[in-house]
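Sync notes, pocket subgroup
Present: LS, DG
LS reminded everyone that the earlier model was apo-only. Rerun requested with adenosine-5'-diphosphate included. Inputs:
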Amino acid sequence: MRLLPAAATVVLVILMLASLLIGVAQVDLLAAWRDPYAMLVLMESRLPRTLAVLLTGAALSVAGVVIQSLVRNRFVGPDTSGTAEGAALGLLAITILVPGSPIWLRMIAASASAMVTTALFLAVIRRLPVREVMLVPIAGLVLSGVLGAIVTFVGWQADLMQYVGTWLMTGEFSGVIAGRYELLWIAGLAAALAWFAADRLAILSLGDQVATGLGLSTATVMRLGLTVVAVVTAMVVTTVGMIPFIGLVVPNLVARVMGDNLRASLPVVAVSGALLLLTCDLVARLAVYPFELPVGLILGILGGGIFLWLLHHRPAHG
Amino acid sequence: MITVEGVNHQIGSVRILHDIRTRLPEGRLTALIGPNGAGKSTLMRLIGRLEALQSGRITVAGHDLATTRTGELAKIMAILGQNTAIASRLRVAELVGFGRWPHHKGRPRPQDRDKVSQALEAFALTSLANRFLDEISGGQAQRAHIAMSFAQDTPWLLLDEPLNNLDMAHARGLMTLLSELVRGQGRSVAMVVHEINYAAAWADHVIAMKDGRIMAEGDPDTVLTEAVLSKLYDTPVSVGRHRNRPLVLHHA
Ligand SMILES: Nc1ncnc2c1ncn2[C@@H]1O[C@H](COP(=O)(O)OP(=O)(O)O)[C@@H](O)[C@H]1O
Ligand SMILES: [Mg+2]
């Protein structure tokens, strides 16, 4: 158990080196410091891509933990709670209303809109009977579906389907180069914010009664959690497109082993998420080399399998 | 002292509580009794500010609930609701540890760790400390929840049916512990008690509720009588005595 974090770190470093080395252009890492071309490939393409994958995997997994504490249900993620579709809706709106708007305005629009739709999800599930554990993910899927349909409709009308596709359908990293992924650091920062609120989020998932009894302002923690989930998702959606499953599967796997003491488990969640996504990205790059598969496809297969396994191996009391 | 003045409560158009006016004495063990649906849990939740007050006024140790910050109240009273089922996968020690959160806000000090181990010890949970809550029995989980409220170490302790799921030995152990808190440390406890003889044996003060109203209140000898209890539960009971306390019998 104690060796696990160390082992995970070693594996992560190995995978990062692999990620830096693998690609169509042959690059000798050791020679890079005196080979300007190799250095260019490394700094402009390989390193940004590797960092983008790590940040996305870590931040989405942390966002998954946060949304699961907010709704007190393990079977949701930022991709099934209306959040990604909300971000896309915000991006569409700002693209149509303020053409050529600066990037920061687009980020704010995407985050704010994602926050509204996720709050809508919370409002919907608050009315569901608590014991019906499976109604929550179903409600999330339905809401995501409806919002996704709206996005598609508006995108179609405004002739922006190409963008909608890159935001919601095919999250992938092949287009990542220096200068086009840095927003993901904001996602990383938002995820780090969750760690500072780890105790509060853990207490919130004990229920409103316990949280209030311990003197917690549940509304404040809710807002903070919403902000984290919305900002992480909005940054990912705009930069690389939504990545499915990771925010659902990683929190579940880690909780199974470590439990829900978030102060201890969130760093592990972040590292595991980075690890899983990097593995999938490497598979996506190598499976039909020199061509690439979308990483979402690999994750869909792997994540779907893990999710089915989780459904059949639920802990005794859910 | 806890004072409740003119408290009405309704859900939708249904009146749950009717003009409740009462006092819970300080340094005493108060038992709330009454049939199912009498409004005991509702009153407890209102006092514990888990439910918003619709009318009237409640003060706890001189602090008006309407004007005192919830974080401040968490250092004055600990409340354990009736429904303690949670979906979180926490270890017993972690749950009990959250009882200290109002005091340290995320930075546990040595005295916080001491209180947690004392609480684990007091509820015979030390050997279960590292077990997950979803991997222990219902009674053990119930004890873990009570231990969390205990670790909160507040002048007032409010417990809604804490004896649920507890076997006879642990129920007795809890009552002994609570009366020791009251008599030894001068703390105040208010609890909803389902099994009336626990109130008869341990309570200093009894409040009997029915249909959202207080039907009788006072010391056990004046409340736990055949006349009051038969009317309270709409069923004939006889009251004997055992070790100079009332003993309620309801065998046919
Ligand atoms: N959410 C609710 N909606 C409607 N009625 C409720 C609700 N919760 C409780 N009640 C009603 O309020 C009354 C008092 O409930 P409660 O305080 O739980 O009683 P007790 O704890 O004494 O058994 C009951 O008649 C119950 O049916
Ligand atoms: Mg009750």
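DG: Residues 256 and 315 of chain A are 8 Å apart (CA to CA).
LS: Residues 4-312 of chain A form a domain with the ABC transporter involved in vitamin B12 uptake, BtuC fold (CATH 1.10.3470.10).
Action: DG to write up.
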